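Readers outside the structure-tokenisation community will struggle with the description of the input data as it stands. For illustration, here is how one protein appears when written out as sequence plus structure tokens:
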Amino acid sequence: MNPGASTNRPSRLAPPGSVSKRTRPESVDLETGLEAKKLRMGAPEKSSAVLARSKSKSTMNLASSRPGRTTLTGPSSSRPGIAGRTTGTVRPGVDRRATTASALNKDRPGLTRERTTLGTLNREKSTLNRSTMGGNGGAGGKRPAWDLKGRLEDMEGKFVQTMERLAELEKEKENLQTDNEVKLEVVTQTTKEVGDLRKNLELSEEEVKRLKKKITEMEDEHSSEVNRLKRQLENEEFNKASLERKLKALEDELTSKQTEISGLKNSVAELTSSRSGLEASLGTTQIELEGAKNRITALTTETTEQKAEIERMREKINWEETQRRKLHNMVQELKGNIRVFCRVRPLLGDEIEKYGSIKHITINAENALELVKTTECEAVAGGLNKNMKYDFEFDRVFGQTASQASVFEEISQLVQSALDGYNVCVFAYGQTGSGKTFTMEGGDILDEEMAGMIPRTIRQIFNETERLKDRGWDYTLQASFLEIYNEEIRDLLATEKNLKYDIKMCDSKGSDVYVTNLKIEPVTTEAEISSMLKRARKHRAVAETQCNERSSRSHSVFMLRISGLNKLTTETCSGTLNLVDLAGSERIKESGSEGQRLTEAQAINKSLSNLGNVIMALAQKNSHVPYRNSKLTHLLQNSLGGNSKTLMFVNLNPREDSFNETLNSLRFATKVNQCHIGTAVKKIK
């Protein structure tokens, strides 16, 4: 092996341009706060995430390259002159400079700065290659092979330049941290304003209830008073009629009995006195009746005003609901279009006795973990690269003790986005036996605590649609369930056999796709979807391998189309929720697959490899993305590179003998997390 072989080794750092800051929409207040700082800075700043990763990875490689020689595993050089003089080792100084140059090769805004940076990096790379092939003996050419001191001085000079470059990057990191603090303050203020609006809404609802109760009490009081007056008026009219009959009888008797007039005068006087009392009472009753009519008129006017106030409050509530949807979407956009969550499966059964605890995976924070390759890992062949540490950062990291409820709490906001009219995709990735199916579908169906992301998502959707009915929203849900087995699409809900399923574009302009002959069932209750999931689970292709006693042999995709109509505001929305459980990657030698299992494993690995190619093309912003190389990427085309909000679960197997697969999964997840697919747009019918 010759020194030139080191130039063919794949760098342990991320590829140039792959670690980039996700662009985030900035508010007007944030732009005003940062304007003066940008003028002082005098030049665009790099992303703090890029600098932190570049520094951490560069420092890791520098620390690993100690004085001495490191054995390389890459292909040997074809130059016979150099091959004759080497012993298959290279000096660590050259590796440090190559690693640092790769870490500094990042995307710069602006076409002119990008070309200048690429030119500078190419010159640095050319210089490093010349140093690797033989070293510079001075300005006049190569140093002789025996001039070790001169070659060491050249490497020390390059190392000093690298350390100066790292100091400059540290300074840029501090400036970016200051900007992040300003953004955090704006987000905190926005959260506080949302809380105040919710409190005002609750107070308004309480005031409406109080006014409704007061109106009801006043109506009851008025009804009782009217009934009492009616009964009193009827009594007075009855008394008046009786007196009139008596008066007529007395007059007839007076006519017939003139001789008894003197005796009847006293009776007439009494009747006259009673009549006067009745008339006075009748006048008083009429006055009270007039007052009651006035009160009824006043109450009617007040009731009309209260109805107008209630209508105004309803309009205000609808407006606040619209604003909440806009703010919720802004929060999701700030978090990024493709988000990545990492979850570590706990040790199970015999694994606890064999390994005791998880030693090679350390969770340092809610969004960071460390993978350590120790001498105890059986996957390390020949004792190479022992005690290496790999740092990874994602949007969220869940340890082995994390419950299904805590995991779903993090993705519930994306489910709300689907109700608001956006396309949402959640898929699980990882090696076989890492817990993907448990995360998506859950364990025992009857155990609520073990329920996975799919049943919990359905429960939240129905709860939200029921709650939004009071605000005028009416939703229609349609569900379908399919699997991709050996590059063939199968409908898990189909009742007819021998149907052909193809992936077609909805229209020539957009990126939405659909599957022909796929059975789509309308659902109105949570029980209907639970029954649907049971049917799909029975038809899902699973088998036992040496790596997993119940290994999924296909990729499953649950699709839920949500259409909403607000009868009060005539607003409409239409969103699609895709929940994907990918089959696990596996090494055929370890799984012991033969015959049909071997064919399945090859098809799974091929589709996952194509998924990686698509992610790489998106990360590098290639003009052509190979979506059609597999059915899986073709079906997920809109979720990976179109109008969708996407979340990926990367599930990790805690066994130490799966170290290499775990490292590959984390590296793939990092590439996905660095992809920017654009801003999702709300779909309105």
User: Anything to note?
Assistant: The chain has three domains: 3-193, 213-316, 336-673.
